[in-house]
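Sequence design from tokenized structure. All designs in this work follow the same two-part layout: the structure record, then the generated sequence. An example of the structure record is given first.
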């Protein structure tokens, strides 16, 4: 697909033009075999509100950025390897039509096109590139992806405790695991999720308990070095913890007996 364009003069010129628009704020994009297939403005659902973003589809990556001057200057460049992408078509909302979700292991977000035809074109080109890449590398499509962040405006109250009302003084936070908008009290914990970041990230209390639980199960089901592997894993997860969580989350899990471990492990299979 479009491979005949690779290493042609016209392709190099088009890629150089994109590099130029991003200037020093962007990465070099030219690579042997890389082809620029198309570009367009899509509306990206961001934390505060939907914003127009410029998107460039290459045969192996999707690049997007903020528009300073259309066709002249872009910044805040993001590069997504297409191998890691899966797509999901979404229903219209009152404000946004022709939506779909771009899901990757590190980050997932919703975009919308100006028309249904445009969405169809984007999705079919993206799918074709992804399929082509996966066939070439023999990799399986990515199944685990990051939860998209629920926009701030979607809720006035904490989505976990449903008590805290947000205001200018009471800030909204996002759980990096489920993407919910939560209050500070409901997201005091940090957890190391290497797929998302090398640093422990803010998670809501529910996700914290679930993550901890599955980490403990994994450690307990390992045939050797139960205690040691659990210890080393767990301690690295809590590095960024802001406060002692008053034992929250850990209280309901005891690691003591061999019997319990076996029960847990057999219930898993
Ligand atoms: Zn809360
Ligand atoms: Zn969560």
């Amino acid at each position: 697909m479009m491979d005949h364009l690779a290493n042609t003069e016209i392709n190099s010129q088009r890629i150089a033009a994109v590099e130029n628009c991003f200037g020093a704020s962007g990465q070099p994009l030219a690579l042997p075999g890389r082809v620029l297939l198309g570009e367009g403005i899509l509306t990206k659902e961001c934390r505060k509100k939907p914003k127009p973003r410029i998107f460039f589809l290459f045969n192996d990556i999707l690049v997007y950025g903020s528009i300073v001057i259309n066709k002249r200057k872009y910044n805040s460049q993001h590069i997504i390897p297409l191998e890691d992408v899966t797509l999901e078509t979404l229903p219209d909302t009152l404000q946004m039509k022709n939506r779909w979700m771009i899901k990757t292991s590190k980050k997932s977000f919703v975009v919308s096109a100006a028309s249904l035809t445009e969405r169809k074109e984007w999705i079919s080109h993206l799918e074709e590139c992804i399929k082509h890449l996966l066939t070439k590398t023999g990799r399986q499509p990515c199944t685990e992806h990051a939860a998209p962040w629920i926009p701030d405006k979607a809720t006035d109250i904490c989505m976990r405790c449903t008590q805290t009302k947000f205001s200018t003084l009471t800030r909204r936070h996002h759980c990096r695991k489920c993407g919910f908008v939560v209050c500070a009290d409901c997201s005091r914990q940090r957890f190391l999720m290497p797929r998302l970041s090398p640093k422990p990230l803010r998670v809501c209390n529910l996700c914290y308990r679930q993550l901890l639980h599955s980490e403990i199960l994994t450690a307990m089901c390992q045939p050797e070095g139960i205690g040691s592997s659990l210890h080393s894993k767990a301690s690295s997860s809590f590095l960024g913890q802001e406060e002692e969580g008053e034992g929250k989350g850990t209280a309901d899990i005891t690691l003591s007996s061999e019997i319990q471990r076996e029960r847990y492990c057999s219930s898993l299979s």
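The first strand starts at residue 36 and ends at 45. We note this feature because it recurs in several other targets discussed in the main text.
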